[in-house]
């Protein structure tokens, strides 16, 4: 199976540090599914201000990580000429559940799946784990738009 490192992902996405959250995309099945890795570190940008005494990764950044993983999966699977000069924007989050806090010094594993596409609109689902413990899950949609 295919895998992408952080620099490969940066070639597909417009995100840059500190907002490029995905460190690796592996087990890629083009336009269908992948597993993303987010290394949540004690020096991650959000730790200083998000409950400094008991730092946790904000739920909104878990959803952002899902979105980045899905965008990288989609961009990687499309023909480069189709994706060139395009961006993937989050359209909506239908359902998101945060089951356990994600604390620094862990590897957040995101299992994502494209569940349908209609033209430029895609729908995805994902589950986030630390070790074998489910931390979050979500269903969201995104669209591919021209860069402006």
CATH topology group: Thiol Ester Dehydrase, Chain A
Low-confidence stretches: none
Number of DSSP strand runs: 7
Largest sheet: 7 strands, antiparallel
Summarize the structure.
The chain is an alpha+beta fold.
Structural description of this entry:
By secondary structure, the protein is an alpha+beta fold. Helix content is 20%, strand content 46%. The chain has one domain: Thiol Ester Dehydrase, Chain A (Roll), CATH 3.10.129. A 7-stranded antiparallel beta sheet has the order 1-2-3-5-6-7-4. It starts with a strand and ends with a strand. The mean pLDDT is 94.
Q: Mind sketching the topology for me?
A:
Blueprint: E1 2-5, H1 6-12, E2 24-29, E3 33-40, H2 59-77, H3 80-83, E4 86-98, E5 106-118, E6 121-130, E7 133-146
Antiparallel strand pairs: 1-2, 2-3, 3-5, 4-7, 5-6, 6-7
Jot down its keywords.
about 150 residues; alpha+beta; Thiol Ester Dehydrase, Chain A; seven-stranded antiparallel β-sheet; 7 strands
